[in-house]
Design brief:
2 copies of one chain form a homodimer. Helix content of chain A is 53%, strand content 9%. By secondary structure, chain A is mostly helical. The first copy, chain A, has one domain: Four Helix Bundle (Hemerythrin (Met), subunit A) (Up-down Bundle). Chain A has a two-stranded antiparallel ribbon. In chain A, a hairpin with a 3-residue loop joins β1 and β2. β3 of chain A pairs antiparallel with β2 of chain B, so a sheet runs across the interface. Chains A, B: This is DUF1993 domain-containing protein. Chains A, B: InterPro entries: DinB/YfiT-like, DUF1993.
Chain lengths: 163, 163
């Protein structure tokens, strides 16, 4: 999904070039004035991917970073996140489903759940929230993207019928 | 997530009542003129939930339906989908991870994958796409919702710190 997100940003940069506007305008675009802009959506998607894996494998979550200001910076953050994820050996997840996960929340609250619930009920819905909202911001701003871009990871499973 | 979606629609109906507009305007709202409107986003989220379970348990997927025209109709579709999902016994999923899944696509194409890949790479990204886009349409139209509404299913795991 992070790879697809990088491809969506490319399509945004393409539109900016065709229409002759600064692609950083897209990075600062919102669907509502009190929602995160595209740049922060991408940044948080990357943080969630990284932190979910950290928590499930018993490491401390990484500190939050300021989001990139340009499409290139955002793509760099995505690439670094994918590299980090590829570096985690599958065996590191052993026992993750029963691990106790604790998430510090604002207003002196804490969320506690098992690793299995954390993956299904916290990490995935949050991660997809930011990936899809990034898509929606781009789409709302006229970037020519569709489900094949959002679902680029599935291309190898699609064939002509009868084969 | 479908329960949360129903709650998001309630918040939309609430805004319509406060501001004195027809809630069906929200049902027909788009983020882009060639994207599905809210009603279709909700309908497709329900179809995906139902059909993913059908495919993973070896049943024929249900035929597509016309989306509801009102918030009440959409909430009815969500409630019926949740009922359907609750009616599927866990044991029905036995062997689903290695089941061969085939999805007919437009332009004489077909996608083929195992059940495990289908769940992770097809069902979940598609399902979340439509749930989050429904959220984004409502949010873009000024409905007062936030992450606690989108993540309502996690409320029972949140406590004051120190308990």
């Amino acid at each position: 999904m992070l790879g697809n997100l990088s491809g969506l940003l490319d399509k945004g940069a393409q539109l900016a070039q065709t229409k002759g506007f600064d692609p950083a305008v897209l990075v600062g675009a919102h669907l509502a004035p009190d929602m995160f802009a595209l740049g922060r959506q991408v940044q948080v998607a990357c943080e969630l991917a990284r932190n979910s894996v950290a928590r499930l494998t018993g490491q401390a979550p990484a500190p939050a970073q300021e989001p990139g200001q340009t499409v290139e910076e955002l793509k760099g953050t995505i690439a670094a996140t994918i590299d980090y994820l590829h570096g985690i050996a599958a065996a590191t997840f052993e026992g993750a489903d029963t691990r106790d996960i604790e998430i510090q929340l604002p207003n002196d609250r804490v969320a506690r759940m098992t690793g299995a619930r954390y993956l299904r009920d916290w990490a995935l819905p949050h991660f997809y929230f930011h990936v899809v909202t990034a898509y929606d911001i781009l789409r709302h701003n006229g970037v020519e993207i569709g489900k094949p871009n959002y679902m680029a990871h599935i291309a190898d499973a699609i064939q002509p019928r009868g084969q």
